[in-house]
Design brief:
Length: 551
């Protein structure tokens, strides 16, 4: 049997390697139009920023490796120009010699990946304008920086690549301005968490221009829709990617609702013996009703392995994703998993939100705060999604949450997790435990939380309420929630008589714990409607500093 794979990055090489492990007499050929194969695309920004010394570290495997270890023939610099599905033939062009030839297959894997999605802007084809998708792109950017020594750069977009390039260009002493067309940064976070992250970046003197688009690029300037002109010796277009499906469409491969290739759980397309995997396919989300397009290296490797197994008669089947992702930005780590708040509401869940600000380990071991937004379903109690912004320990927690969501955990189960504890690694009650406790209190124990956004909505509607700041007086006068009165925790029992038990009441402290303690006291004294402000004053100040409602 003859297998042809189109594409030799994560998915294509994984499919071929797994097929070989299953069937040693299989004839396997891979065609790749570029020169680099099986590379770490996620590491490319760090090569540009010189944190990774050599790009060879990101491209450790060449065709000779696959030939020697797997007896797989990989032809780089070979473009598959067409597919004859009925005759099971491919037309291939050797880009070095312009020779065109035909090869035959019994089974075909399409792993054509994704391509940069560039907006139709005048000047995006200039020599100092770059996108970053391949090692060739990275080499070109690095060569430009080394030769031209740019002083100012504009990055368009605040996705993973945009922010990773921000960090690495600034490490080279290049002044950077971020331009974002949306009214919030980073698409993988809800608005409140994006605002929280933005507040941290502003403290680092990062210039971010939201609701702004580039209208034209000149040799050393970028024109904006606002009429402003930015100096720019180089421009990075981090405007996202789209699935590379043109070749697949020519033979009638069905696309899904996202515009990527539709596959079953074996990675087989609507055409028999034609499989697809990696960044050119859409995947099913375990919590959403519709397919999603989430091009990540981890998913590409997984779907490639499943394709290679299935086409050789194996039993591997794709079970779906929950959209877990993580990236580094200076000393910060940003991660998410599961549904965000907007997605959860769209799916019809009765959403309960908590914001939990806790250190990853004790202060005496250098612990630093992380902010965890958790999303759960009021009806079932199931955890639906989590977003984290922090410095240390974010990766550990997001993986715990991803596992919990995958297996349908309810919020009351989080507290009972037997997580590893020692002071160098965690607090006695881990931030995961605290998130579970907050949500369990809200859903099952009559201890509701109120988000900063919903508090602003209540205030805008002039709903009568009493807001109690439970912190020390000096903290209250430094920064507080609008309309709050200051009753420190130690004095609350003496002041209860001055409060209205039947008036909706919101308690808060710096981050939530003391506010919850006062909430409990008030409820025990007959108050009928008491909420604790989610994330406390810290989250309120970071996300609602302008006190303006946002959609």
């Amino acid at each position: 049997m003859k297998l042809i794979v189109i594409g030799a990055v994560a998915a294509g090489t994984s499919a071929a390697a797994k097929a070989r492990r299953n069937q040693d007499d299989l004839d396997i050929v891979i065609y790749e139009k570029d020169q680099d194969i099986s590379y770490s695309g996620c590491g490319l920004p760090y090569f540009i920023g010189e944190e990774v010394e050599s790009i060879d570290q990101l491209t450790p495997r060449n065709p000779a490796f696959f030939k020697k270890k797997y007896n797989i023939d990989i032809h780089t610099g070979h473009l598959v120009m067409g597919i004859n599905y009925q005759e099971k033939k491919v037309s291939v062009k050797n880009l070095a010699t312009d020779e065109v030839f035909t090869d035959t297959f019994d089974k075909l894997v399409i792993a054509t990946g994704a391509k940069t999605s560039l907006p139709p802007i005048e000047g995006v084809d200039l020599s100092h304008v770059f996108s970053l998708r391949t090692p060739a792109n990275a080499r070109r950017i690095k060569a430009f920086i080394d030769h031209e020594q740019p002083k100012e750069a504009v990055i368009v977009g605040t996705g993973f690549i945009g922010f990773e390039m921000l960090e690495n260009l600034m490490a080279l002493d290049i002044k950077v301005t971020i331009v974002e067309m949306m009214d919030k940064i980073t698409p993988n976070l809800d608005r409140d968490m994006a605002d929280y992250l933005e507040a941290l970046l502003i403290k680092k003197k990062i210039t971010i221009m939201k609701e702004t688009t580039v209208t034209k690029v000149d040799n050393h300037q970028v024109a904006l829709n606002t009429g402003e002109v930015l100096n720019a010796d180089m421009v990075i277009m981090a405007t996202g990617v789209k699935p590379n499906v043109d070749l697949a469409q020519t033979i009638g491969v069905e696309l899904g609702t996202t515009g990527a290739i539709k596959v079953d759980n074996k990675m087989e397309t609507n055409l028999s013996d034609v499989y697809a995997c990696g960044d050119c396919i859409e995947t099913n989300h375990l919590l959403a009703q519709d397919a999603v397009y989430r091009p990540l290296g981890s998913t590409a490797n997984k779907t490639g392995r499943i394709a290679g197994d299935a086409l050789t008669g194996g039993s591997l089947r794709f079970k779906g994703i929950i959209g877990t992702s993580i990236y580094k930005l200076f000393d910060l780590t940003i991660a998410n998993t599961g549904l965000n708040e907007r997605e959860a509401r769209r799916e019809g869940y009765d959403v309960v939100i908590s914001h939990n600000i806790k250190p990853d380990k004790p202060a005496y071991f250098g612990g630093t705060e992380m902010c965890i937004k958790s999303i759960a379903d009021q009806t079932s109690g199931k955890l639906l999604g989590v977003q984290i912004v922090g410095r240390e320990g974010v990766d550990k927690r997001i993986d715990i949450f991803a596992t919990l969501i995958t297996y349908g955990a309810t919020v009351d189960e989080l507290f009972h997790l037997d997580l590893a504890y020692a002071p160098p690694f965690s607090t006695t009650k881990d931030p995961v435990h605290y998130s579970g406790m907050i949500l369990d209190n809200a859903i099952n124990k009559g201890r509701p939380v109120k988000t900063a956004q919903s508090l602003l909505e209540d205030q805008k509607d002039e709903r009568p309420m009493q807001i109690i700041d439970t912190r020390a007086e000096e903290q209250f006068y430094k920064a507080c929630v609008d309309g709050a009165i200051n009753i420190p925790h130690a004095l609350i029992r003496d002041k209860i008589k001055d409060l209205d038990k039947h008036l909706p009441t919101v308690t808060y402290c710096n981050s939530g714990t003391t506010g919850n303690a006062v909430q409990n006291i008030l409820l025990n004294h007959g108050f009928t409607n008491v909420s604790n402000l989610s994330g406390g004053n810290k989250f309120y100040q970071a996300t609602c500093k302008n006190k303006q409602l946002k959609d």
